[in-house]
Amino acid sequence: MTLFSVHALADRLLKGTGRAHETSKAIRPSWIWGELFRRGTQLVRGTLLLRQPVFLGSGTRLLGRSGLSLARGVSIGSRNLIDARGSRGLVMGPGSRLGHNGIVTTTSRLTLLGVGLSLGKASGIGDNFHIGCSGGVTFGDNVIVGPYLLVHSQEHNYADPDVPIRDQGTTQREVVVGDDCWIGSRVTLLSGTKLGPRTVVAAGSVVRGEHPGGVLLAGTPAKVIRQI
Question: Which residue numbers are catalytic?
Fold first, then answer.
């Protein structure tokens, strides 16, 4: 097969997963064949285990499969622990992606039914994530998230000094990230955070509260640096 046809095949397959990108002609055909084989293996695994054409990496454990709602072109990486046992389960839009070595927690104890995670169209979460979804976590469409994301939609109560914090219960508040946001690496989103569309969060930031769209946030705690 010629150089052009190998790249054209990869382009068609990408389009079929909802990602209309062109492969670089600088990439060697042998590399493309290797990637096609790897992705094909993931597709076979996902189709056999989940009975639908999604890409599933090796070593990933899925809890509460009945709570999964996965659209065309969804990709779930390797060595993840994904808990879909929530009132809204795990919803992934067309072409969305969860990276490798991550954890999604939803119903971590039998005294509280969690809410779940929703990931919009063409949105992707980088590797080594930990997303706590007890209070609900929602990402819009076309969201880019770097590695080592931490999301906490639940926090411990501690107001009573006479009661151990462990025994004071928790408060759940949803975390919402709007469309077309870019979340840098090692960002922490705390309970109740809401980010408007087209927000950029600088690497290493800790975010709490509601923030308008179209801004750059940075710092610990994160503050608006400028409009974008």
Answer: 156
